[in-house]
Amino acid sequence: MELEHKFVRIGGEVALREGHVIEGYASLFGLPDQGGDTVLAGAYGASLRALSAKGGKVKMLWQHDPAQPIGVWDEVREDGRGLWVKGRLLPEVARAREAAALIGAGAIDGLSIGYRTKKAQGGKGGRLLSELELWEVSLVTFPMLPEARVGRKAERDTDGDALMRDLAAAFEGARGALTGA
Questions:
Q1: How far is residue 104's CA from residue 16's CA, in Å, rounded to a whole number?
Q2: Class of domain 4-179
Q3: Which of 96, 109, 154, 176 is an S-S bond match for 150, by CB 3.0 to 4.6 Å?
Q4: Domain residues of the chain, as ranges?
Q5: What does the pLDDT read at residue 142?
Q6: Phi, psi of 176 (to 5 degrees)
Q7: pTM of structure
Q8: ∠ CA(111), CA(49), CA(64), 5° rounding?
Q9: pLDDT of 146-159, one tens digit each?
Q10: Each residue of 165-178: pLDDT tens digit?
């Protein structure tokens, strides 16, 4: 099974606090993303329990780059709405300071999960995802699930935003084809 990514904008009630604390939903249950996949409630439970049992943590990365960890997720849990995360950008890491500035300015407003599908119904572009092995949650530029947003509550889901998300998905697909991922 290959590593997959799902993008979501950080929830509207999410803010950058104390210059480095981030909290909000990295995934929302029951809402199809722009690829047509829907994460079902409970999809992360087994993965989170397995990570906890071995003392592991979900990684916080910049743009899904495993060479660029930018902080730590102190809490990752499911609730009735989705996958909630709370973590800290590490001010000692240059990219984390940049991420904090970009979030504060509203230039970055997305979260994306990196995972492997364990159980799903349906085919590509329309799956019901019932069990996922969660690897990481990244701060990203272009999210796929427009229902959640970062700190600013202004309306941002314009046709231009949709076009940019479509372009980002196309670039991600091309990158995957080139790297064999």
A1: 7
A2: alpha beta
A3: 109
A4: 4-179
A5: 76
A6: -65, -40
A7: 0.74
A8: 25
A9: 654 443 222 333 34
A10: 444 555 555 555 55
